[in-house]
Amino acid sequence: MDCDDCDLVRYCSEKCQQEHRPYHELLCKERAAELRDEILFRQPERSHRGDCPICFLPLSIDQNQSKSQSCCSEAICKGCSQAHKLQQLQQRQYPTCPFCRHPVPKSQEEANKNMMKRAVANDPAALSGMGRLYYNEREYETAFDYLTKAAALGDADAHFNVSLSYLRGEGVEKDEKMRLYHLEEAAIAGHPTARYNLACIEMMNDRFFRAVKHHIIAANLGYDDSIQMLKRCYKNGFVSKEDFAAALRGHQAAVDDTKSPQREAAS
After folding, report:
1. 173 in helix, strand or coil?
2. DSSP element (H, E) containing 33
3. Does pLDDT of 58 surpass 90?
4. 166 and 144 in contact (C-beta within 8 Å)?
């Protein structure tokens, strides 16, 4: 059997593992931290927003450039939403979801009911949406329950919002360790704001090398604030000219990937 936390040691039995733990514990913690960093500082291919399910282009990290559908929990870019709306107007059809063709809800109450149905079916995006809904109504404990369920299913936005709950003590007691864990999970899943926040934490702790790595990853996802921070880091000598230039190219490529004629026309 392998050690639960690292890949350095194999044991013949649980008894053997327990007897060896005092000698192995320090090395185990160091290796576990190394393995965590390998995952944490891996560049995601896409942001947590993913792709529009209609045009298959990456969604902008600016959530105002897309709309989440309460009926199917899919986020549709503005370009596809606008094209679908124009087509329905021309054909005099009743408004429907661009993706699943479910009738558009007539009120916010109906949209919330749709989202609740998805949440009952354990849809992570819907669970996360219900969490935000209850949070806005200041029902923090209920919001936290929904968000933790969504986070357990891998929703990056939920991980990020759970980290904020632990930071502020809303719906749960303040816990810095849990806050950092969920912030890291969100960053690993491609959440650029979570990545930026981790960079700021590293900066405050004078771990500039780690902070720069976080900012480079966020910049490569198209995050503007990290590019601005990298400019400062470059001026202060914390990032090389080559790394800064690569981050600028990566940032521009990520932004360009989200563009299309349909999206430009809808803006």
Report:
1. coil
2. helix 14-40
3. yes
4. no
Is residue 14 pLDDT above 90, yes or no?
Answer: no
As a whole number of Å, the end-to-end CA separation of the chain is: 57
Q: What pTM value is reported for the model?
A: 0.90
88 CA to centre of own chain = 33
Residue scoring higher pLDDT (29 or 180): 180
63 secondary structure, DSSP code:
G
Determine the Cα–Cα distance for residues 255 and 98; give it in Å rounded to an integer. Answer: 24
* 88-132 confidence digits (pLDDT tens): 999 998 999 999 999 999 999 999 999 999 999 999 999 999 999
Backbone φ and ψ of 231, nearest 5°: -60, -45
- List own/partner pairs for 58-61 with CB under 8 A and 24 or more apart: 58/254, 58/257, 58/258, 59/258, 60/222, 60/258, 61/192, 61/221, 61/222, 61/223
Residue type at 126 in one-letter notation: A
- The burial class, CB within 10 Å (0-12 / 13-18 / 19+), for 200 is middle
Q: Check whether 244 has a pLDDT greater than 70.
A: yes
